Amino acid sequence: MHKLTRLVRFSINPFLQTEVEGANPYASRPAGEGLSIFFELSVGLTGSLDRATGFVMNVLDIDETVREYVVPLFAKRIKADYKKAKHIGLYELAEILKLSRGKLAGKFDKAVLSELTLKLNPFRKLSLDCSGAAEDCKMIYFGEKFEFAAMHRLWNDEFSDERNFALFGKCANPTGHGHNYVIEVTVKTPPKGNDFCIGDFEKIVDDEFIKHVDHKNLNVDVSGLSGVNPTVENIASFAWDSLIGKFSRAQLHCVTVWETDKTSCSYFGHSQ
Question: pLDDT tens across 200-223, in order?
Answer without folding.
Answer: 999 999 999 999 999 999 999 999
